[in-house]
Amino acid sequence: MLRDMTLGQYYQSDSIIHRLDPRVKICGTMLFIISIFLFDKFTGYAVAALLLFTAIRISTVPLKYIVKGMKAIVFLLVITILFNLFLTPGDTLVEFHGITITRQGVLTSVFMGLRLTFLILGSSLMTFTTTPNNLTDGLEKLLNPLKKVHVPVHEVAMMMSIALRFIPILLEETDRIMKAQIALGADFESGSIIRKAKAMVPLLVPLFIAAFRRANDLAMAMEARCYRGGEGRTKMKPLQYHKRDGITYMILVIYLAAIIAVGFIPILP
User: Fold this and answer.
1) Residue 268: which pLDDT band, with cuts at 50, 70 and 90?
2) Scanning 12, 66, 179, 228, which has its CA 20 to 30 A from the CA of 108?
3) Where are the domains of the chain?
4) How far apart are CA 120 and CA 114, in angstroms?
5) Per residue in 84-111, pLDDT tens?
6) pTM (two decimals)
7) Which of left, alpha, beta for 237 (phi over 0: left; psi -120 to 50: alpha)?
8) Which 8-state DSSP code applies to residue 8?
9) How many of the other CB atoms lie within 10 Å of CB of 56?
């Protein structure tokens, strides 16, 4: 399961999606995530799916590699679907042993499942096609106006970038610790859910120690290089918009217009 976590990883390629300005990809991802919560019709999800899978195809990132990251949220996805399926009031479709399934519950559970799936796939595509350094630069540029109200924009962007960079490192560390404890006789697979949860507790201490050690090493390395934040720092490769970025912004505007139009078209969901 830990090996299937792909959030924060970068997939090396030379596609047009990889070459887009990180600000475009960040804005596009945020727009996409917001848009999937603006409608409750299958036509809207069809438009969102068209944009998402077209972007995945253009990015040349293998779809199975992106979908692999979904395994980590299967449990959350199932719980969300079941809660909406059984707890949403409406027109009864099936009733047995006091459990009622309604038409509204079925639609809501399907829509929530699609929303979570699209959210993870869209976010993963951004991290797969954007290096942590570019992601930091893009966030810093987008948050620049907040400097006027004394928000430490560079530090916030740096922390978010470091957090993303540490995700695969900590997962690898967790996997290594689990293998070491399995070699000593630990059992993480058998038993009930509660027993499995208790078996995971011994992982926390060495994992936290490793995390703090890595964080301390990173802090010492930054201090040794006289890192003092964003004030007065220059960029070796300043971000610049190109023609492809303008075209992408136009595509996003067309997508937003299509999503808004779907909300007013009187078509059955």
Assistant:
1) very low
2) 66
3) 1-130+239-269, 131-237
4) 10
5) 888 788 777 777 777 778 888 888 888 8
6) 0.77
7) beta
8) T
9) 22
